[in-house]
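Schema walkthrough. Field components (list of strings):
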Amino acid sequence: MILGLDLSRSAVRVWQRNRDVFLRLWKTESWPPFLEAFITLVAFGFGMGAYVALGGEDYIVFLAPGLIAQSAFFGATFETTFGSFFRMDSQGTFDAILATPLSVEDIVVGEILWGATRGVISATALLVAVWIFGLTESPFAVGMIPVAFLAGMVFAAIGLCFTALAPSINAFNYFFSLYFTPSLFFGGVFFPLDRLPDWVRTLAWWIPMTHASNLSRSLNRGALGLDALVDLLYLLAATIAFGWIAITLMRRRLVN
Amino acid sequence: MRDESRPRDSRDPSHHGAEPDDLQPRTATHAGLDRHVVGYSQEVFSVQVGKPIVTAHRLTKRFGTFTAVDAIDFRVNAGECVAFLGPNGAGKSSTMRMIYCASPVTEGELYVDGLDVKREARQVKSLIGVVPQESNLDPDLTVRNNLLTYARYFDIPKKVAEQRADEALALFQLTEKAKASVDTLSGGMQRRLTIARALINRPRLIVLDEPTTGLDPQARHLVWTKLRQLKDAGATMLLTTHYMEEAARLADRVIIMDRGTILAEGTPAALVETYVGHSVLELRIDREENGPLVEELAGWGIDFEATDDAVYVFERNGNAPAPKSAVREALRRPATLEDVFLRLAGRSLQE
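Field assembly_structure (string):
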């Protein structure tokens, strides 16, 4: 019992279940997100990059670490929104698991760990492509993989909070308008945030995506200063906060 | 300890195949299945017969202001099959869900094998096998992997799980479907797989929430056969149903529930004898015309009930004489649990 939570290592069982399903379907499941990120990199990096000057840095070098963080965002988010919602709602998988010794906490933590794993898989695939293109600038770039996992936990937990609240699959429209799209455009992936109006910049600072892309960029440049530490602490705190909220909401949803 | 006093010993093959509705011809495969069941009886259901497995005292479940289960008391002993009988909304499923810790107890006490469900949910759940009302097999996994994945939730080592899964698939006639996707199974096969899944942890108690609802007659009879095999092997079972026939066929003891309370409890035969009698004489007649008949029967001092289109005469000591009043149609049939239920819960539709 931690903070009134009934957590156990059985959370791994939920992760294993999702892994088994993924390994069965990976040929159809894992390519589309990778290809999408890769196409974005080529199109924006080379296409738009030809018209953009960013204080001496090639636009594609600026963009690549942001896209790596964003592919973790996509991987984790889709897993714990549509993926978890189907498991919870139409398949009854969570109910089946709850009839075994596992608790709601175990399920939530297992789903978050799995969402983060999906984020790492997507981010790693793209990192390899970026490395082959010669766009990595420091050995610290490999640190983007653990960052993808940590940020993936935040993204997965936030997705799961919405899943616990969603009355039906249509409710995810709100999730995409209010959270997903702002994260996509104001999360520091496609352009630096420093020339935005102050109030937009303040809002953008609170978006988890911002810290994931900033931290990835710092690692790619090998520039690890106070900013990177703040990003790291933000992501750690957000993991705990959103993980706890997800557990609370999921308990309300599943236990009655 | 095995129950040696059990009248039907599963090791005696003469009892199997002699079942009136056992759909399977007696073949070598079937004899093989019997061996599996015997295997279960020795290693799985080795419990002290008569020891209480479930004890509920003033058990209550409320949803807001609605009371689904209203301070009920009951007990299920080891080796016993107890059926909760009642219409939809009687509180049967709520009671089951509290037992397998899917739903918190609002008030009262509930113990499973001596463990408090309120405080030791994990241990309680590790002792129970659950067959839920709605199928929640994992459509993303094959038939065999459904069993193996489920076993992993119980921390059962892989080798043991594989052995148990293959045994269970054989017992439930699903071996050929081991690699199939769950979606390709018929309703009856899915239900059998759900029961097989509930046995993977060698449970002390099997909870079945409406195990045959929605199945066609063939599939239902096969499920009954399998459940009787488990019962003969000494399993402790708790099931809910709104099929009187199911309760009569499977249960040692029936608990009749309605609107959150227990109306009656006993063996199927004793309930029928106590509340109805040995047979029922059904006299078809419209309510507008039943005046003389009702008057005549009342004069006999006999137990009867008049409804819109019939008068039911409950026969306790021999057959009632034929009434002199005009009757459109008369039918004498054995009394059933359904008569008990309708007498206790009333005939009007509860919605």
